[in-house]
Design brief:
- The protein is an alpha/beta fold.
- It is built from seven helices and seven strands; from the N terminus they run βαβαββαβαβαβαα.
- About 35% of the residues lie in helices and about 20% in strands.
- Helix 1 packs parallel to helix 2.
Length: about 210
Amino acid sequence: MNQVFIANPKGGCGKTTITTQLAAYFANTGQKVLLVDHDAQRSSSDWLGSRPKNYSAISLIATALDEPCDTNGAELVLHDMPAAWDLEHVADIIHDGDHVLIPVLSSPTDIKACLRFIMGLYRTGIMESSIKIGLVANRARVNTRYFQVLMAFMERVELPLIATLRDTQIYVRAMDKGLTIFDLPPGRVAVEVAQWQPLLDWLQAEH
């Protein structure tokens, strides 16, 4: 595993939350992690700026998509992609062996935006390569009608649903302190960590 792109042109779907959680998880395992913040809002940068110094170190680059990015020997590069990304030059950015995670919320607007993004990916031709692309149902409320609509949508697209992450304020409270669920006492976040395990396994599996 080298590069993971967390992408969806729809704002507010949880790209930064997923990016920062993954950054902390892999940094906690001792890997050299680089977080590349492509979003103009710089939310990932703000999170890392508030991360306490006694927690696992994560490197940061905040840059536009068309700027060169020196990974400086990082073992894992996580790209927090910008909202409203139109897939321009996608073949120059995402390469064979990379992973793409698409977080999607269970609302009609988010589902439609996700579908347009997936169709755009098909048109670029990159889905014919060895890139691994998966969906994440984010901020899920499984007992709602819209969640069932989201699941029906997931069944129609030819991409795997990697994980379903429940809607909880634990992420917000942790991120406000520059932390993640992987920095908190295990007993407090056992449900959340279990929900992340399929995603972690998918990222670390061989192509």
